[in-house]
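Reviewers asked in the last cycle whether our approach scales beyond single polypeptides. To address this, we selected a multi-component target totalling 602 residues and predicted its structure end to end. The input consisted of the following lines:
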Amino acid sequence: MQKIAFAVGRQAFMLFAKTIAVLSFVFEIIYELKHFVLQRKITRLILIRQILFTGFEALTLIVFMAVAVGGIIILEGNVILPDFGRSKFLYTIIVIVIIRELGGLLTAFIIIARSGTAIAAELGNMVVNHEVESLVSFGISPVLYLVVPRVLGVVLSMVALNIYFNAAALAGTWMMANLFTSIPVSEFLYKLFSEIAMRDILSSFVKSLFFGFVVAVVSSYQGLQVNFASTEVPQRTIKGVVLSLTWVIIFDIIITAIVYLV
Amino acid sequence: MKFKMRYSEKIVGSFLIFALVVITASTGYLILHSKSFEEKHLFKAKFGDAVGLSASTPVYFKGFKIGVITDFILTDDNYILADFKVYEEFRNKIVRNSALFKSINPITSTSTIEFLQGPENLSLLPDGGLVPAIDIPEGEKLLAKNMVKKTGDPLNTVIYNLAAFSENINKDNNVDKGAFFRALVNMADAAEGMKKITDNLNTDFESISAPDKSGRRPFASLVLNAAHISDSLRVMTGLVNHSLHRLDTVLTAYSKPEGLVVKMIDPDGKQIIEPLKKTITNLNEVLPKLEKFSDFLVTQQGQFLSILKQLVETMDEVQVTFETINNGPFIGKPKSERKK
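The resulting structure, written as structure tokens, was:
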């Protein structure tokens, strides 16, 4: 009994310590944001390259996936409901599925797969190669120099990609709906915007902000948690992916509940 | 890759700016579309219940969204008092003696609020005025006085009409309470009797086509059934006549101009009542002739019997003659197939 109590107590303490460590890391990032604005000449290039890699280079994949998802929704809808392309359900389902939920989630999943893994692996290798130590020895904060531009880059890319995803998915739904029944763009947009509320756009924007932040923070944290062995890098990368996915879904539920239920 | 590195700033800038333009244009269009900055006129709406009501439920008039429900509360007298905003361009549609019709589609469970405009010659309802729903007494009065005409979700309207019809027809103060259903039951009984007769006739006609074991066609059994069938036909004709007479009485009662049911299903009486009355009158004219024919069948039964017997005998002779010809050595079948 005593052993069980000891084990539970130790686990609880470790969980508490980890939570404190992660929260400190998050607060440090927020604190260093101020310095980033002041010293942007140094880290600006890292930020731009991060957006280029995370945002622009993922654009083709995002657009392709969005058009496919939009088309599939219409295709499946037409199987279930005759004249689906003409019905009011079309617009309701587009808004609920794409703008409220899938847009943010799928974009986050792609960013986790492409950029989350890359960030964790890159930072992990930097730790193994003592590059982080050398930064500290020069008096440069690794959070300011390495983490903040990555976090900002991922957040901005996530927001932009979410917008592109929604736009492309709506275009995909319109194109596929036109195969079944002719709908003018003006009519499509009019009916679509009749179904969209301001809180749908707001929720989509807030979700993309949080998702981007969560993915970047979790990946950076896991990358910096590597101690000395290069074998730790893939382990930490996988852990970063799993935790990013988990926290993205948790935040999705929380934000949806706050926006639509409160 | 070198190209991307060299122009990375421009590429990233374009990437972000274009996304910003898309989101700004969408938000702007949404704001314009939702008429957020347009002047609105506030009215009060009163409903019987809050089922399907929400703080942003739109209100439609002739398919146009003319406003939204913004808030609602439960009053002390257990009605729902709602704030109802109307857009500037539709302000002149809100006249006195207008009403609202809240309908819920039973399949999709989506609620729709339809604005039912009062007589157009009436003056505008001042801002803050009350627009009742037709599920509360004030609204029911407007509907009864024909101040407003109910429209809305077609499926819901049909169900609403059927429910109202059923409710009114079963009211205790309705002199014809249950008459419609009694007439329907009689009609059902009559139809059942007619079906039995038809079944008997079918059976008999089927047996005509197949000869029995002795090789004789059972005309005789048909003749024996004929008397029974004609008697049954006479009885059923009388029953149908009686049922139709009762149905005629019921329809005459509902065709009175003060009947609520008639107002709902056929206000002018030209669509259903008049054609039905004509049909019933024609049927009434035909029925005595049918009865006479039935009586004639009964009186002529003896003669029919003898004629049919002669017919049976003749047919038997014909059958024997044909068999003889068939077995003949010159015209009939080959020798191997002839009857032994």
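Chain B has a mean pLDDT of 72. We regard this as preliminary and will revisit it once experimental data from Aim 1 are available.
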